[in-house]
């Protein structure tokens, strides 16, 4: 009788504990890829993402420059919402394989070494692959000069659309 009560109490405690962990939000996982600059912490801007991403700031205006650079690591299927930047954004993929799309164009597969250039005001999204982690360094002018506009979440249908390999653009 006491064993049954003890086991019941332990089972109830386990259920409560698992619920508390679930309610606490995303759980930190270690990326199985070399993120080069470190994985960082669970992204504080997660409300603009589907899934879990990690942020490691690299360069900020406190260092006397007029741009920000951060390493962002995406778990599989994690992606940003549709968004734009008033003065554009450049993404340097440093590890893994992911996806990127400019609204109205085909989804692109991005991988280590790819450079994605997003012109000012262009709506786009980026994230990990369906089964792969991806890490990129995002460069953009400081927020005072480059307002991000966050839009709607990327649907599963948009995310899973047929994808083609990304073609790096060459400077002129």
Automatic annotation (TrEMBL):
It comes from the Bacteria. It holds the Pfam family Cupin_2. CDD domains: cupin_HNL-like (cd02233). InterPro entries: Cupin_2, HNL-like_cupin, RmlC-like_jellyroll, RmlC_Cupin_sf. Keywords: Signal. Residues 1-23 form the signal peptide. Residues 146-172 are annotated as: Disordered. Residues 72-126 form the Cupin type-2 domain. This is Cupin domain-containing protein. It comes from Candidatus Avisuccinivibrio stercorigallinarum.
